[in-house]
Amino acid sequence: MVRDYELMYIVRPELDEDGLKGAVESVEKVIAGAGGTVVSSASWGRRRLAYEVKHLRDGQYMLLHVQLEGAKVAEVERALNISDTVFRHLLVLRSEVADDIADLPADDGETTAAPRQAAVAADEDDDADDADDEDDVDDDETPAAALTGSEEV
Question: Model pTM?
């Protein structure tokens, strides 16, 4: 069964424009060789890595939306593991939530502000209720006894 996957991979930073184009073509050939198709491709450009990987601090990020048989995933990952130009990759099943999020209109800042403010107000109300609950403890009970419901002997 053909399913949708997302493939994020990082290409060596020292490659020039032609080298990057060759690396992208080789990854697409690997996917096509496994019977898959590349639906869309996006270059995220050169970015700093969070930590050093194989003595590299930077990499050129690529994101692909791929349709591929589930049985062929291991074949694609094996080919990416031995690639000279790709030094990190992650191939994950694309969820319906990701598709729904991609279809949403751009955020204008106002649509998410109201629910966020309501959540903050609800948290503040909960904190106020918790403070009121602390005042309900009898004077002859210790806080530990108030939690367990028993009095100190």
Answer: 0.60
| Token pair of 55 as six digits | 């003595």
* Phi and psi at residue 148, to the nearest 5°: -90, -15
Q: DSSP labels for 35-79? A: T-EEEEEEEEEEEEEEEEETTEEEEEEEEEEEEEEGGGHHHHHHH
Q: How large is the angle between the packed helices 17-33 and 73-81, nearest 10 degrees?
A: 150
Tokens standing for residue 4: 């949708």
- The per-residue pLDDT of the chain, averaged, comes to 76
Residue 2: count of CB within 10 angstroms of its CB: 12
Strand-pair partners of 60: 11, 46
